Amino acid sequence: MKTNRYLIETSVACLLWSGSIIACKISYGSIGPFTLGLMRFSLAAVIMLAMLAVTRDHDRPRGRDMAICAATGIVGTTLYFAGENYGALLLPASTSSLIIGAFPAMTLALESAWDRTRPDGLKAAGIALAFVGVAVLAYGESSSGGSDVVLGDLALLGGGLCWAVYNLMMRPLLGKYSTTSITAWQTLFGALGFVPLVLLTEGLPTATPAPEALLSLAYLVLGCTVAGFILYNHSLKGLPASTAASFANLIPVFGLILSALILGEAITVPQHLGGSLVVAGIFLSARS
Questions:
Q1: Which of 26, 116, 212, 274 is the most exposed place for a label (fewest CB within 10 A)?
Q2: pLDDT tens, residue by residue, 168-196
Q3: Structural domain contains residue 185
Q4: Which pTM does this prediction carry?
């Protein structure tokens, strides 16, 4: 039963994250990608640190563990979301979906190399099937609207590598501290990591963001960051990193559903087929 709980938690996290691309696109009208990262994670860190104070959670990582929190915050927050935000700015949704679909395979390969083990056959088959599903989804989408594709590809792939490393770096912290405490300190360090990126590339904002950008920012802070990361980090207590990461393949599926419900976009036959393959692949990976 506990395993089912962890699977539900990581699924909900991916559902929340699936709306992030839409929210980011809306925000880019008046907020730069790195400035958006700084605002998002600064506000989220304040909220989560306040949660620790209200609940009197004094289980703060110390010494080497705090250093690990800082490192995972830079890798899993600053570098990953810098790559995702910048890649999403340059690429069409189809290309972004295909690259994000490769992240679980990258995590599995890195996890197997780190542990010096062979990937479980069922898990590897599940991730491969899910990747095929994402490829079908990407093929069925329009490829228009992207610019500087190579740079966008590299940005997203770099972010995916950071996500794979983040999952392994989290291991020494799991079970030692509360999930909220770990996530709060990671988010704080991740927000600080965005400061030099903003100063070097975009500069401090001089105008007030548009109302729709502020609403999107609120969703990114409360839904994608506070709730999403707490749920995902807690799921890592009961799931292997590669299994939890395989649920990232649900993001383009959830994204299609949200696009249909919110934007009224029609779901095509290739999208139905690709979504079914993704769900089947995740079922095999989780079952292993």
A1: 116
A2: 888 888 778 887 888 899 999 999 999 99
A3: yes
A4: 0.75
